[in-house]
Amino acid sequence: MYRRDHQCFSGGKETDGSPLSAIFHSWQRLLLFFVLTGILLLLCAAFGWQFPVFLLLVNLSAAFLFLCCILLGENLKAEQPALIKDSDYACALNRIKHEEELKETFSNFLHDEILQDLLSVKNLAGKSDRPEVRQLILKTLDQLNLRIREKMQDCHPVLLKNLTFKENLEQLILSIQSLFPQQTIQVTFLCSGTLLMPAPYDVLIYRLVRELLTNIYKHSGGTHAWIALSLEGTTAKLSVWDDGAQISVPEADGTVSFWHKGLFSMKEQIDSLGGTLTVSSRIPQGVRTEIQFDVKGEDSYQHFIRG
């Protein structure tokens, strides 16, 4: 717990124990040294001072820097508990907000998708002697079953262990296509059959593909979609694009200045991993989403999920 919060407080910068290293990077300290040395040499040249005077000035400067380090170190020690406490509070507040958003979303799902249909079935139960009513009850229960299963998969995707990661994503693509039978969008999936995505990044990629492909079916109006996934060293790269409608309000560089809820949530997650998510218009038509982040192990993913 302390390790994570301390990294938030220090900005994630590694230090070598010197107070100056908490403020300046190594190249900045080196630059400071050369600048100070240059100033002393210029002073000696301007006033005609000899080399012993230069050495004396160097010693005085070193003593001054040493004194500054002592004072700076004492200040950092005094302020560190307060900074860590503020970081703890901010992380806890963000966690509470995130949990409340999840609870609100699930509550709305229960009310809008489940409770209303259950009340309808209850009202129809008194007329169940009629064949058409029984048929309507069965249809409603089947729809309830489907929506509950979809919500379960949305809350916690289950990847089949007897399938490769690529095969799991192919099954996901087929399931999304089945949700939009009225649309005929051809999906091309570019991914190595031997790609191994470690947990829990596999679930993250699964969610990203589902969100982006669903967006294409809902909003693009195109006829073709492409998904490209690769793991180059420790860098995961996901590209999703289509030939449908372009972004309505692009910036000068082609990126968007607005995000709907799903895209904004994805961007927050990728940003928390230190990655990038960009959306741009394609020429002559379509939208392209590029996602890239480093695969560093389970701890970093748990950090952004809990935060």
What is the helix tally?
8
Architecture of the largest domain, according to CATH? 2-Layer Sandwich
CATH class of the largest domain: Alpha Beta
Could you name the CATH homologous superfamily of the largest domain?
Histidine kinase-like ATPase, C-terminal domain
Helix content, binned percent: 55-70%
Structural class designation: alpha+beta
**Radius of gyration, taken over Cα atoms and rounded to an integer in Å:** 29 Å
Average pLDDT confidence is 77
Per the CATH scheme, the topology name of the largest domain is Heat Shock Protein 90
The total strand number stands at 5
> First CA to last CA: what distance?
12 Å
Q: Strand share of the residues?
A: 5-15%
H/E order of the elements?
HHHHHEHEEHEEH
How many domains make up the coordinates?
Answer: 3
The shape is elongated
Q: Major sheet: order of its strands?
A: 1-2-3-5-4
Largest sheet entry: 5 strands, mixed
Low-pLDDT regions: 1-16, 249-259, 298-307
Transmembrane segments: 30-48, 54-73
Domain Histidine kinase/HSP90-like ATPase: 204-295
GO molecular function, one term: ATP binding
Protein name: ATP-binding protein
Give the SSE map.
Layout: H1 2-10, H2 26-47, H3 51-125, H4 131-155, H5 165-179, E1 186-190, H6 201-220, E2 224-232, E3 235-242, H7 261-272, E4 276-281, E5 287-294, H8 298-306
Parallel strand pairs: 1-2
Antiparallel strand pairs: 2-3, 3-5, 4-5
Helix pairs in contact: 1-3, 2-3, 3-4, 5-6
GO biological process, one term: phosphorelay signal transduction system
Pfam families: HATPase_c (PF02518)
Protein name: ATP-binding protein
